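Today's session is about reading a structure prediction critically. Students often jump straight to the picture, but the first step is always the sequence itself: look for stretches that repeat, for charged clusters, for runs of hydrophobic residues. Only then move on to the predicted structure, which in these notes is written as discrete structure tokens rather than atom positions. Here is the chain we will use throughout the hour.
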Amino acid sequence: MSPPAQPGLPGGRGSKGPPARKLLCMCSLSLCLTYLCYSLMGGTGPAALRSPAALPGSAAPGAPRSPSAFPATVAPRSPASPSGSPGAPAASAAPPPASNGSREGAAGTWLRARLAPGEVITAQSGAFERDPQESSTTDEELSRAGSPGSRGGGSSTTPDYGEKRLPQALIIGVKKGGTRALLEAIRAHPDVRAVGTEPHFFDRNYEKGLEWYRNVMPKTLEGQITMEKTPSYFVTNEAPRRIHSMAKDTKLIVVVRNPVTRAISDYTQTLSKKPEIPTFEVLAFKNRTLGLIDASWSAIRIGIYALHLENWLQYFPLSQILFVSGERLITDPAGEMAKVQDFLGLKRIVTEKHFYFNKTKGFPCLKKPEDSSAPRCLGKSKGRTHPKIDPDVIHRLRKFYKPFNVMFYQMTGQDFQWEQEESDK
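Below is the predicted structure for this chain, in token form.
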């Protein structure tokens, strides 16, 4: 069963009573003030960001918003859209000549390049965002997800009979937060069946319909939970409304991580596939001399968790959303998994006996407690060594994220202690 809603915290459409609605309004107002203050400062803040409430046509807090109501940026990235893409907006005019300290120039050439196959245009950014996925999920892979003996169908010990059902729980984010580790761990539970690949239904494949989505799912028995994970859902503006339309009681899990570390990890993943891209320092700033952070870059924008969460709270009460710490998923995986199992209404079966810390990789590996075979670790794409980043850039990013982190703590009622973590370094 879902844990009861915490008193005094903002709720979504399912929340009852004026206090929850009032506090959500206060959170939205606080976000507005944060954006405004940072814009006026003109220093390390997201000067290009606009508050949701300040946008034309924005719905009042507590009411579902249309996709067009998502915050836009003043100076978005605009690489040309793929040729032949149906309904793709035309690319904007070329940006003005670069000023001293700007990231334009060498970076501009890469930013304006055509999107490569497998890259997606994220719906929330108001701009074309280069967002390569961890893997390219094809229809063929998805159709094999629930087949007998496949990892996509969950535990291999579960018989391949039952019914294909729409998922009752979703891991919706965030990218490079630890979603794969969480999925692999929860799949060790005998009452969970999950798709190993990322269906991307609510962001890229929605036009294929719910029957297509249901067919991707593994077969489950009565009492088992069907799950899937697609980290990009959390930052996709249309996803909350679409998921609510499927089932308003869907349970949502978000794995969050220190946004500075997450941004560097995101960049490291892209760098491993595209060694020619500009440095992190170049991409992180609109203007390095003025210290203007480029919040339109997806690696930076994903980490503004309060901004994205506000969109979800228009449709779902906070009691239906579980926030998992990506850091504690490494330092105390059993403790975080206990919370996940409680949230899903499952018996605590995945415990400390299922984990072994791999010092070489730097994170826990999964094993079956009754099995003497070697633990199964995540692939080589996990635990990559991060490039060395200029300490001044790290400092500016910490200042940029701090007010948004504080707002996120207030909205969720949880303190993830990212500022404390940074002061200890």
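Discussion point for the tutorial: Residues 1-20, 39-136, 146-158 have pLDDT under 50 and may be disordered.
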